[in-house]
Design a protein that fits this description.
This protein is α+β, with helices and mostly antiparallel strands and about 725 residues long. The radius of gyration is 32 Å and the shape is flat.
Length: about 725
């Protein structure tokens, strides 16, 4: 048996090292060629992927290659290094940096490069592709770079190059880089993953091709009567500067959209300097059309309302209506229903209801998706409300949701869709109390306070309430000065969620007067629409007697006028567990107040959440020695199912077992020996050792057909495994 040395010297030494240390599957071929010609060389049956095969099949006269499909690897093979550098610069990418992150191979030929990477599972099944440019001297197409992956091979050192007669070499040998193949950088992964999207762009990046195929997209379709305003606006604004002002980052000759998942710049400004095109699927302008500076202004400053944008652009440029459409027009600020002192203007001077065209579906496909911060609870551009009686923990619950949005961590299991800076306004507590509660959340969920820097802002209105609307002596409701300050702060800090607690303290209107409350809510809706933030209002419920769950799921349970419920797009209720529920679930009386339920009473934009979601108020000690209650999600489905059994003995099902295991397994753990949770399982459900072991195998034994349960807004799969009949049972969990 050949003994492998620390630094491989011979061809066989290298082959053993590649298989044993790097996990590479090999093929062999003659030293005077660059690849094998044996039929089926890249079939799994012929992979050289064990030391035994290497020692028996490879000789010192062979060249060897790494088969990417057998090794979970890929490489970028550069045939024109100088051209490829220019190609990547077009997208704001540094090719030399990417090469330096991989295992580089050189054949000694100038202006060439090759780097090997380990690939993620997402690239399994991808096929190779190459990009060619015409030679500026001959006009003949020449390969610039190959993106090699799948059932292909790349020659590995110390194989001999058939043209130069010299050996391939590692620029830095893998045994000097820790004996691992580096992971492929994210941007290269995206190029492989979306080759159909990027390949033509890489071809079109050639700088010496003058007559490049233009992007065949329709021109922007703005109303003809406004063309003069739009053209003057575009002349007055630098397109690149406008893109950068709205979060687009310049990368080489392109711009990177702020929400790009590929991190590869895909926004191109055309040669006229007035139009751009976005290849980003996540971009609001990635709709297959060309756009201009006015489109940016229209979308980001007027939420896509063209008429409003034309009006604003005309004001900005000092134009009158006579200058662009004929006639006279008063461009004074439009009155809001909250400010009767403003000059009244005709907001419907151009009464033009929209008709339905043949291309309705294509129009709808261009409409941006709803932007939920927390699915079914907080929606950008709209107002949400949570109804709860005193003492439930609604302020703490709202603050925990605020921290979830600010950090992007789904603390309550409600489904955080987008992370954004958050503003919390509390008129009932001072800053000390607000900080106590925040510290409790961070301590319980082990979150570093640095994660909230620039992401969470708090304002205490204790003693001097923050108000959004005021009431004059004659009963007129007007916007308060704070309303304008809040709007400006939201825009300045790019706030995505504003939480206010309680609603009644933020206005001076009559609580039971629908007309007055409607005007207050209209101001909140105006702020939400203008800034595209989500607004969460905490509101008290009417008294409901001794039953603490009587109002659960009832959107009409809010105290006072119904205007708040009618205007809010999402209405939740919070309630403490009542005595009847606690008795059914065998929960001790002193523990009952710690359980609270969240129900959806109204959801205008989606289906309701259905069954209640339950949370447990944990007593958390904070640095000053105080204790605060912090909510965390808890699964009670198995207890409810058990309570519904008519037999005194629980009739367990696979679903019940899975739900029980889900509540017992530590957070973040995907597999655990059943023996680690058995004691708690027996204690919590009052079952004997033999019964516990029997129930551990009631869930599926197949990962392909697992026992699936629903936990809040996601599905969780459970199955068990055993190496052999006498081996311990391992419980597995996977979130889908």
């Amino acid at each position: 048996m050949k003994v492998f040395q620390a630094v491989p010297k011979s061809v066989v030494d290298h082959a053993v090292y590649y298989i044993e240390t790097l996990g590479v599957g090999l093929c062999r071929f003659s030293s005077n060629t660059k690849g094998p010609n044996q039929v089926g060389w890249n079939s799994p049956a012929l992979y050289i992927d064990t030391v035994g095969k290497a020692l028996s099949e490879i000789s010192e006269s062979n060249n060897i290659g790494g088969i990417h499909a057998a090794s979970k690897t890929a490489c970028i093979d550069v045939d024109h290094l100088a051209w490829a550098v220019v190609m990547f610069q077009e997208f704001g990418l540094d090719l030399m940096s990417f090469l330096g992150q991989g295992l580089q191979i050189t054949s000694g030929r100038p202006n060439r490069a090759k780097a090997l990477f380990r690939i993620p599972d997402s690239l399994t099944g991808c096929t190779m592709f190459k990009v060619s440019w015409p030679n500026p001297d001959t006009g003949e197409n020449e390969c610039v770079i190959e993106f090699r992956i799948g059932n292909v091979q790349d020659v590995l050192p110390p194989s001999i190059h058939p043209d130069t007669g010299k050996p391939y070499q590692w620029v830095v040998p893998p045994w000097e880089m820790g004996g691992v193949i580096p992971d492929m950088p994210h941007e290269l992964v995206q190029l492989f993953l979306h080759k159909d999207k990027f390949r033509q762009q890489l071809i079109d990046a050639c700088p010496w091709v003058k007559d490049k195929p233009s992007i065949k997209v329709p021109k922007s379709e703005q109303p003809k009567q406004h063309n003069n305003v739009i053209s003057k606006f575009n002349e007055a604004h630098d397109l690149g500067a406008m893109l950068e002002a709205h979060g687009y980052t310049r990368k080489g000759k392109r711009y990177l959209a702020p929400n790009s998942g590929t991190r590869i710049a895909g926004v191109i400004i055309f040669e006229d300097g007035e139009h751009f095109y976005s290849h980003h699927g996540s971009d609001i302008f990635g709709d297959g059309k060309r756009h201009d500076a006015f489109d940016i202004y229209c979308q980001y400053s007027h939420h896509g309302n063209v008429k409003s944008a034309v009006k604003g652009a005309a004001q900005m440029l000092g134009l009158t209506k006579q200058q662009h459409t004929g006639g006279e027009y008063n461009y004074e600020s439009a009155v809001t229903e909250l400010n009767p002192l403003a000059v009244a203007v005709d907001n419907w001077a151009n009464f033009e209801p929209m008709g339905i065209d043949d291309d309705l579906m294509s129009q709808v496909s261009a409409i941006p998706k709803r932007r939920w911060l927390i699915q079914s609870h907080y929606l950008r551009g709209y107002v949400s409300a949570t109804f709860a009686p005193g003492g439930v923990g609604k302020s703490m619950f709202q603050l925990t949701m605020a921290v979830s949005v600010a950090t992007g961590e789904d603390l309550l299991g409600l489904g955080v869709e987008e992370s954004a800076p958050v503003m919390v306004i509390n008129n009932e507590d001072d800053y000390d109390e607000m900080l106590r509660r925040l510290a409790g959340i961070l301590a319980h969920y082990q979150i570093a306070s640095a994660k909230l820097k620039g992401r969470l802002f708090m304002l205490s209105g204790y003693g001097q309430p923050f108000t959004i609307a005021s009431r004059l002596s004659d009963g007129t409701i007007i916007a308060s000065p704070e309303s304008e300050k809040l709007t400006a702060f939201i825009k300045d800090k790019n706030i995505g969620l504003v939480c206010l607690d309680p609603f009644i303290s933020t206005h001076e209107s009559e609580e039971n007067a629908n007309t007055e409350i409607n005007k207050v809510i209209s101001q909140y809706k105006h702020i939400a629409h203008e800034t595209q933030c989500a607004i969460s209002l905490i509101h008290h419920t009417a008294k409901s007697g001794q039953d603490s769950e009587a109002h659960a799921g009832d959107a009409n349970s809010g105290r006072g006028a119904s205007s708040l419920k009618d205007a809010a797009r999402c209405v939740d209720t919070l309630a403490k567990m009542n005595q009847d529920t606690a008795s059914k679930l065998n929960i001790e009386p002193d523990e009952r107040p710690r359980y609270i339920r969240l129900d959806n009473g109204k959801l205008n934009f989606a289906l309701g959440l259905g069954d209640a979601q339950w949370f447990y108020m944990n007593s958390v000690k904070i640095p000053n020695g105080d204790f605060v209650g912090v909510p965390s999600p808890v699964e009670l489905g198995h207890l409810f199912e058990r309570s519904e059994q008519t037999d005194k003995r629980v009739k367990w099902s696979a679903t019940m077992v899975a739900e029980a295991f889900n509540s017992l397994m530590p957070k973040g753990v995907d597999s655990v020996p059943f023996s680690d949770i058995k004691a708690n399982f027996m204690s919590r459900y009052d079952i004997a050792d033999r019964q516990a072991r029997e129930k551990s195998t009631m869930i599926s034994a197949s990962e392909k057909e697992p026992t699936r349960i629903k936990v809040h807004s996601e599905y969780v799969d459970f199955w068990y495994s055993k190496e052999k009949a006498t081996s311990p049972v391992i419980i597995h969990r996977a979130y889908r």
